């Protein structure tokens, strides 16, 4: 991911994800679009955003840096580095995450149960909130959609099949189908690409700047070393974590501009295929 700077482009305007608190806040501060203008004071919206950005974020960090071995993290984040350097960076980040999550030798089992219990509650609440609707709130995308879609796609595509968090998410049919629908429409529209895993069980108009919007990532100028197919797969999966954050914005701009007059593009590096 260090080779990509994700951004949203609307005409001559560009919002980078590493500036102004991210793409969503950047577009709001610059007066381009405010996804949450109609819902930001609703208690349900505040609660939904809170559990996604706290409980579910904690669960992903725990699985990546504490519960799993080094291999997936290395392939996603450190594959361009020498193995010893990647190992050092992993250990450093793992210690930082343990400290952030309050995990130590005395309470490791208790904290793990608590983290997964919170994630389970969050998935149940979000699944109930979504129901059969297209979006979580107000029949249009908000930052809740952007944040949850980023989480869902990363969890389903990047985490291993043995992941506890992944299996808990797969228990909720409607949110998995929701993520798949938006993935096909805006993130990876190639019909030949592999869909997200099937759920394990059943449960519960114009843009002020331009009518053309796109989500892209800027390639690094220096040449990349050759990667194995496995590394390419992991790095492409990691792309969802950043790329999906812009989907709600793109959906909003597309709906406002009109289906006939707007276009959404996702430019992908040639290193990434459409199979994962």
From TrEMBL:
Region named Disordered: 187-231
Any one GO biological process: protein targeting to mitochondrion
Keyword Transmembrane helix assigned: yes
TM region(s), chain numbering: 240-259
Domain of life (superkingdom): Eukaryota
Skewed-composition ranges (Polar residues): 191-200
Sequence ranges of Low complexity compositional bias: 201-214
Chain intervals with Basic residues compositional bias: 215-225
Protein name: Metaxin glutathione S-transferase domain-containing protein
Species, as recorded: Kalanchoe fedtschenkoi
